[in-house]
Amino acid sequence: MRIAILGAGGVGGYFGxxxxxxxxxxxxxxxxxxxxxxxNHGLRIESPLGNLALENVKAVRDISEVGxxxxxxxxxxxxxxxxxAKSLVPVVAQGAAVVSxxxxxxxxxxxxxxxxxxxxxxxxxxxxxAIGEPGVIVHTxxxxxxxxxxxxxxxxxxxxxLYDACSKAGIDVEISDDPRRLIWEKFVFVVGLSAxxxxxxxxxxxxxxxxxxxxxxxxxxxxxxxxxxxxGVAIPDDFAQRQLxxxxxxxxxxxxxxxxxxxxxxxxxxxxxxxxxxDMGAQVNVPTPCNRVIADILSPYALGA
Length: 305
Fold this sequence. Notes:
There is one protein chain. This protein is α/β, with parallel strands linked by helices. It has two domains: 2-177, NAD(P)-binding Rossmann-like Domain (Rossmann fold), CATH 3.40.50.720; 181-301, N-(1-d-carboxylethyl)-l-norvaline Dehydrogenase, domain 2 (Orthogonal Bundle). 45% of the residues lie in helices and 20% in strands. The protein has 13 helices and ten strands. The protein has helices at 10-21, 32-41, 81-87, 89-93, 107-111, 157-168, 179-200, 204-209, 211-230, 239-248, 257-264, 274-283, 289-298; strands spanning 2-6, 25-29, 43-46, 52-54, 58-60, 71-74, 97-100, 120-133, 136-149, 172-175. Strands 1, 2, 3, 4, 5, 6, 7, 8, 9 and 10 form a ten-stranded mixed β-sheet that branches. A hairpin with a 2-residue loop joins strand 8 and strand 9. Pathway: Cofactor biosynthesis; (R)-pantothenate biosynthesis; (R)-pantoate from 3-methyl-2-oxobutanoate: step 2/2.
């Protein structure tokens, strides 16, 4: 497959490198020192599942330099989604499909404002990875999975082709016949972990050991479940409790990318996480006091230091 990775950070860099090593024709769209490092020295993956060094990396500054591709991975920060959607119009016009692996339940709605709905494949990723230094992606933990599917539940040729490419690359992969539910289920956990680690300013181990913050994490996730159910998503009633049990299996030092961004003084994805839950809750008459308070408390930091 010819794949463009739009956003070569932890998610895009890791999965793009694995696919390139397995024979896919991958082009990374990146910026700054990370782009220059990939051009000059290649891309290196450090992972407990095996390190990888790509010496000859095709890396460009803008999607317009990519040329004709079969598929585009969107892995940029959420505030860039609208600009990315606009930039993809000519690429999609040449036949490319688009799959976003961002942590938002409204990402594909934003993309579909500018792109044909039939060009969009629903996607979810599960991985803890980040840029360790320019040209180096550091993967922590053993999880590295992509799940995707057509919104109508069909097993299309493009979905099967991507599945086969991922399998060949050694990526854990799943084709879902209900990807909207998968997106919402991941959203439950991402919102909870992001909100509580950022509000407490500590990793998950500290949160879970304290009875009050543990209960707060559960309440934050329960609100997301309630909003999703009100919007017609078939999330089980006990899903938040199950996710809390999942968090207990995490390393106590694990945290969220939003907490990392907060600590570094970077811009936060807050408006698309707890902020979005609170806004959607108001639209469907579901109370979301925990998410609203966390969104308000963190709002002075939303644009970075």
